[in-house]
Design goal:
By secondary structure, the chain is of the alpha/beta class. The protein is built from nine helices and five strands, in the order E-H-E-H-H-H-E-H-H-H-E-E-H-H. The strands form two sheets. A three-stranded parallel β-sheet has the order 1-2-3. Helix 1 links the parallel strand 1 (about 10) and strand 2. It is globular and about 45 Å long.
């Protein structure tokens, strides 16, 4: 029998997440209707549950995924949809802790940064890629998230070594092999 840890995928609201005591993959599920309404309150409430306590922040470090529904028939990539970009622009202003919580090695950090930075989508046959048009803008946006996210580290006594390791792994997500 395998000794691999089980993966728990949980669909809940902010209260359910706040009362959950196990490790889990956290999916921020957003709908096109919610995005086009520009109403970030529900998403923000769910994200705030991740920062309720030091234990929660540590438990869900690098466990957050973004899932957006309703754009499957839209030929544009999410980074090309003005409403999605505006929604995340507003959400990021209210909750800066993305780089601590986003899962690694699944494209979550490039997606987030592509939603808040100027990018060019490149299409070739069946391949779609994205390039950041201004590396200084990308660096500035990441620095802003790191700096505003430091408040959580200070409040919860998260060590400089822990925060630096998180920052290093977040930056590594944007480096092409």
């Amino acid at each position: 029998m395998s000794q691999d840890p089980k993966i728990i995928l949980m669909r809940t609201d902010a209260d359910g997440l706040a009362n959950f005591n196990e490790d889990a993959l956290v999916v921020l599920d957003l709908t096109r209707t919610e995005i086009e309404a520009g109403n970030i309150s529900s998403a923000l409430e769910r994200l705030m549950a991740l920062t309720d306590s030091k234990e929660t922040a540590l438990r869900f470090q690098e466990s957050l995924l973004i899932h957006i529904t309703g754009y499957d028939n839209d030929p544009r990539e999410l980074v090309e949809v003005p409403e999605v970009r505006a929604f995340f622009g507003k959400l990021i202003q209210q909750w800066p802790h993305w780089l601590w919580f986003l899962m690694r090695n699944v494209g979550a950090i490039p997606l987030l940064m592509g939603l808040i930075c100027q990018v060019k989508v490149n299409r070739r046959e069946d391949l779609v890629g994205m390039e950041f048009l201004d590396r200084h803008e990308l660096a500035q946006k990441m620095l802003d998230l790191f700096e505003r996210g430091n408040a959580m580290f200070l409040a919860f006594g998260i060590t400089p070594a822990q925060s630096e390791a998180s920052a290093t792994s977040a930056c590594a997500e944007l480096v092409s092999p």
